Amino acid sequence: MHADAVLWEGLRKGDKELFLALYNKYYHSLFFIGLKEVGDGQLVRDAIQQLFLYLWEKRETIRTAVNVKSYLITSFLRKLSDDWKKAERFSSLQVVNDAYLEDAPLTPEESLIKKDEDDHQFTLLAGLMDELPNRQKELLVLKFYEGLSYEEIVQRTGLSYRTVYNKIYEALKSLKLQVSQNQPHTVSI
Amino acid sequence: MIDFLTDESFINYCKGVSEKDTAYWESYIHEHPEQQELIETARQECLLLFNVLAESDLAAESMRLRRRIEAEEPARVVAMEPVSVESPGYNRWFRLKWVGVAAAVILIVFAGFQFYYSAGSSNKTYTTALGEKKLVRLSDGTVIHLNAGSELRTDDQYGISNRSVYLRGEAFFEVKRDENHPFIVFTTAMQIKALGTSFDVRAYDNEAITETSLITGLVEVVLKENNNQVVLLHPNHKIAWRNMGGDVLVSRTDTTSRREPEVKEERQPEKLLVTDRGEIKEIAWKENRLVFENDSFSDIAVLLQRWFDVKIEFEDIDVASYRFTGDFEKEDLKTILTFLKESKDFNFSISEGDKLVTLKK
Which residues, in sequence order, are CB contacts of A14 under 8 Å at separation 6+? Predict the structure, then answer.
């Protein structure tokens, strides 16, 4: 993974791949910080996209950043706050959250992310995940990734509590079932 | 195992996001040592699931960003009077997208289009062949994206005493602001007046539907064939007009609904169609994207013929009435048809040197 300074210079010079690498590097940091602030994954995703589109548009005029991560987080929270107000879900959002800016500690979720692309189980599960019906996968995303409670998922999707629970159960069951079929020699510790 | 994974408190414990749940499960394990191994396996499963979902979200979002910045690169566009990426017009379009897209207008024009040609000498005509797009920059800084199979002519006095252009086909306009000289687009059925704004006008001779997508600002549309009704369009709205006597390219397949006489009544603007991806269908062509939203195959065929410079024939009328929803970017014709074939039952063959496409059951 490249150093921030390299990625930032890449952005300034219009190197698309380095720019996307910068995005990939900080996506989850921004995502989980944003999720904690506003609780709406889609709003957060859009705000991150817009922040980076803005950076790309302004690449020729942006300055050298001293602390790339702090800069990204500050700009992102400002953007998110604007979006949030527009969405009129809250009258305002306290965004000048200094806690993020000093050493920018990892969010609990972010620290769970392991980059291990050779992991056989990971690849297998990712493949099975793609075969799930969209609705089931969407619910897994809300539950396990975004960390919504069942009650919140019910409110978000308009499905009944029973349906949400059953669909998640079914999804887990079919993932698990197929894992054991495809991988009879699993060694679990 | 699944019983653990569907437990809210257990998920919180796995992810370490709740001190209360962590304390609960640690004490639970302490009290049930025989389940320790099972619980640890479930915890690993939970984390693996989280990681797979996190990676999949990142991959999808990263691809979305890539597509959006690559869409800014003028692929397949031939610049007649080159516009550099740094030009104000280009940047403004980008900024508009960043703001999040605002508005559109839909006009409906039909065949029988009589283009007004003056004998003047200083006018310029820009044309695009089928399968071709062009970017044109006029003397006042207005930038025009001309879609395939279109023709745009400037008035003799353009940039002198007026800013009038005549369009058949489809174009996206980024109008340079000049309050003293309104920018006017003339088509058969409508005329669109703007000060400084961006919008799309679609007025193909062979099409039932002509669309104009206004991105920002305000435009005034005059419906010539509706007692010159004046419609003011606001962001995110469009207006539609359907002329009489229009000929749909694949007319034999779809005539019933199109030939009803137009009732002259006040026209009201309607909301723009924004896709799940937050993009406006009406201007997707500008980014080399084809977007279908429950469109009939006969309408789609008209579009495909223009994009790929082919002739499309339906051997079965039923096939022409199939409806599709989909989103394609920089795909070739065969890929698109193969993809559509996945969702509805039809076959296609491409012959005559890739110029004739036949669709049948």
Answer: A59, A60
Residues A27, A108 share a domain:
yes
Q: Are A165 and A143 in contact (CB under 8 A)?
A: no
Tell me the mean pLDDT in the region A97-108. 60
For residues A17 and A42, give the distance between their C-alpha atoms in angstroms, rounded to a whole number. 24
Domain that holds residue A75: 4-112
| Single-letter residue type at B337 | L
Looking up residue A170, the CATH number of its domain turns out to be 1.10.10.10
Token pair recorded at residue B173: 């306009």
- Residue A15 neighbours by CB under 8 Å, 6+ apart: none
Which of A112, A147, A165 corresponds to the end of one domain?
Answer: A112
Q: What's the pLDDT at B90?
A: 35
Chain B residue numbers with beta carbons less than 8 Å from the beta carbon of A140 are: 49, 53
- The distance of B290 to chain A (nearest Cα, Å) reads 22
| Tens of pLDDT, residues A31-76 | 999 998 888 898 899 889 989 998 998 888 887 777 888 889 988 9
Shortest alpha-carbon distance between residue A96 and chain B (Å): 23
Q: What is the CATH number of the domain that holds B319?
A: 3.55.50.30
CA of A99 vs chain B CAs: smallest distance (Å): 17
Q: What is the pLDDT of residue B28?
A: 93
* CATH assignment of the domain containing A74: 1.10.1740
Question: Which domain-ending residue is among B230, B256, B276?
Answer: B276
* Segment 62-101 of chain A within 8 Å of chain B by CB: none
Environment class of residue A165 by beta-carbon count within 10 Å: exposed (0-12), middle (13-18) or buried (19+)?
middle
Structural domains counted in chain A: 2
A155 close to B (CB below 8 A): no
**pLDDT for B103-123, tens place per residue?**
223 333 322 232 333 333 367
User: Cβ contacts (< 8 Å) between A144 and chain B: which residues?
Assistant: 11, 46, 49-50, 53
Question: Burial of A7 by CB count in 10 Å (0-12 exposed, 13-18 middle, 19+ buried)?
Answer: buried
Asked casually if ipTM beats, i.e. exceeds, 0.90, the reply is no
The burial class, CB within 10 Å (0-12 / 13-18 / 19+), for A134 is: exposed
Q: Using CB atoms within 10 Å of the CB of residue B118, give its burial: 0 to 12 exposed, 13 to 18 middle, 19+ buried.
A: exposed
In chain A, whose CA is at the least distance from the CA of B18? Answer: A108
Q: Quick count: other Cβ atoms within 10 Å of Cβ A155?
A: 11
With contact defined as beta carbons under 8 Å apart, do B185 and B167 qualify?
yes
Cβ of A126 under 8 Å from any chain B Cβ? yes
